[in-house]
Amino acid sequence: MKKSLLFVVLAMLLSAFSTAFAADMTRCDVDGGCAVIKPGETIKIGMAGPLTGEYAMYGVDISDSEKISISELEPLEGFNWELLAEDSVGSAESAVAIANKWITDPTFVAVAGNVLTGESAAVIPIMEKSFIPMLSPSATGANLTEDNSVFNRIVFQDATQGKFAAEFIVNTLGLKKIAVLHDGLDYGKGIADTVKATLEEMGIEPVAYEALTPGEADYSAVLTAIASKGPEIIYYGGYTAELSVVINQMGQVGLKGVPVFSDDGAFGTEIIEKSGANAEGCYGTTSVPADSPEKLAFDKKYEETLGRKAGSKTPFPWFSYDVVQALASVIRNVAFLGDDGNLYIPRAELVTAVRTLSGYQGLTGEITCDEVGECNASGPTFYIVKNGAWELASK
User: Fold this and answer.
1) For residue 276, what are the contacts with CB-CB under 8 A and spacing of at least 6?
2) Same domain, yes or no, for 282 and 296?
């Protein structure tokens, strides 16, 4: 009798478990289905950015920080995590090829990126169709969060950066004769356009608005055109490689002593290394977070692991660490273990969960995403080069 009762109880428990599992499996019967990770496989998160080429400093710094972050993640139901760091060379075409490869892998669940604005814009439609969320530490193009459900970011966006920069130049520095220069790419031109528009809203028409061609070694022609307008300051939208050439050639065309105010894409020690004394008095934008015990612990590990100080290469290592940790926290919340031993992650649920992430405490502060995936409201901080180093800028 006791034996029969035991069998009945076991049968009931098995039936309840099977019913619960069946109910869970219905979460995979919607658009996007589920990522399926079998025993022995890993939960894959992707990162794509320039690991070689002129913009490699961004991709390398971000991938290095994300590798540190993913190495600290505890297994989920016995499944380990893996970061797929891929070299896009900063090319939208390469980023698309990488994305198309990722989406064929059933164990691939999210993107801790992309790094640059242009490549992010190119892969958003692919990720949208495949129900794969993106959480970028660095892509700041203002339009990236428009008209899609998958792209999110924890860094401030370019419209914020450009607006704050224009207001700082006019209201804090008290300058009115402002030239605007950009590299013609999505990121640099987007910020420059916002600076120009903000100045015009403030009743100030830029004395010049010019574009240069990325990758060239001589910008004297465009700088000469700007010099003829007698600017008090030049706002530059773009990256370090071109900005260093601009700064080093300004003295040759009558712009010696005119400061350049640039964006976070050109912030770091590399611009000082490439420009030397010519960088003195130039302004830059960064989003380096305030110190905290957690940030200082990361800074220590970063330096011990990589042999350089966090923030010396780019301003993104803390954001890069946070995007991996934040994605993992959301994945933990939606994943479930099947009675077949596989780990299931409902893709549509994950997209929604990332977009509605709220109150996550990271190295960069509280991460809370709004309805379009903007997860940072703190805005930028401005620095100036003094005595060969970046210092907090004031009037």
Assistant:
1) none
2) no
